[in-house]
Amino acid sequence: MKRVFVTRRLPEPVEARFARSFDTVWNVDDRRLSPADVAAACEGMDGLVINASERLDAAAVTGLPASLKAVATYSVGHEHLDLNALQARGIPVVYTPDVLSATVADDAMLLMLGAARRAREGQALIVEGRWTGWGPRQLIGTEVTGKRLGIFGMGRIGREIARRARAFDMEIGYHNRRPLEPEAGLFFADEGAFLARTDILVIAAPASPETRHWLNAERIARLPKGALAVNIARGSLVDDEALIAAVESGHLAGAGLDVFDGEPNIHPGYLRADRIYVQPHIGSSTMETRLAMAERAITGLEALFQGRDPPNRLV
Ligand code: DGY
Questions:
Q1: Backbone angles phi, psi at 220, to 5 degrees
Q2: Is 222 among the catalytic positions?
Q3: Which of 36, 103, 141, 259 is the most buried (most CB within 10 A)?
Q4: Which of 234, 275, 290, 296 is catalytic?
């Protein structure tokens, strides 16, 4: 059996699935590892399964042992890996696309509805014992049905979000590098026009140096007053100061965020801005999805070990 190191503890059935295919070594105390720790833990391993909570930068890739033949990231996002450095070392990498799109899209709807219907404030009212009973002025929200949805990044997850949003009679618009087939929705090549017609913005684009702080004060100002913003991609796409200020000033009616820049050390403004519905990066956290991600990672690694070229290979 090939020896594989996994950087985080996985749900029990997922660990059992890995153990059927590999001689698996776990990061037993589930401590977040530095890039150097990850490289050191790979000593004597054939494979590495890394999570989005760990990074492999160029220096760590240099430190990877000669025994290491393949890497799988247990994620669809891969900005935590220096793919160029891995490619230069001749270490192939697989990831887990497709299988989490539906679950993450479900979560985008939850964030959208949570922001629109002020779920955080309602929850707090009850669990903090402050609710004094029904009132017609209480927690007036924003209707989602029939609104103009704007998806930034119409990839696999974006398309799944659009599919769900159609059931809410939403008008789908998107801003992408390229237009898709006409049924996908209204394509906006022009970013300003895209933002100006968007009532509910969902960020579903990958993290990259180009998309860092994409949602900044200037772009927020182009959204109509009372718009909502949702982020299920990566925290780095949002300028936290600008988003918090826009929600506090009332320019945005609210926001729904599953991901944060520098998480878990989130901007302190998120602790007080109760119109911002927050979640601790759990967009893909369902057992069904975790198992399906494992299947993709395992079959990808097995293919690489056998010298085959799996469809989920990144480099
Ligand atoms: C992903 O797969 O990229 C999720 O955000 C979990 O890391």
A1: -60, -40
A2: no
A3: 259
A4: 234
Taking 3-state DSSP, the helix, strand and coil percentages for the chain, each rounded to the nearest 5, stand at 35, 15, 45
d(CA 273, ligand 1 centre) in Å: 25
49 Rama class: left (phi>0) / alpha (psi -120 to 50) / beta? beta
Is it true that domain 101-278 has CATH number 1.10.10.10? no
Alpha helices in the chain (DSSP H): 12-21, 35-41, 58-62, 83-88, 101-116, 119-127, 156-166, 191-196, 217-222, 240-249, 269-272, 287-305
Q: Which residues line ligand 1 (CB under 6 A)?
A: 52, 75-77, 100, 283-284
- Mention every residue, 6+ apart, whose C-beta is less than 8 A from residue 76: 95, 96, 97, 100, 101, 157, 284
Residues 6+ apart with CB under 8 A from 110: 256, 279
For 186-233, write each residue's pLDDT tens digit.
Answer: 999 999 999 999 999 999 999 999 999 999 999 999 999 999 999 999
Sheet architecture: strand order including 70-73: 23-26, 3-6, 47-50, 70-73, 93-94
Question: pTM for this one?
Answer: 0.97
Is 234 in the active site?
A: yes
pLDDT of residue 131: 98
Q: How far is CA 149 from CA 61, 98, 173, in A?
A: 41, 22, 6
CATH class of 3-99+286-305: alpha beta
Give me the catalytic one of 79, 121, 263, 295: 263
122 alpha carbon – ligand 1 mean position (Å): 28
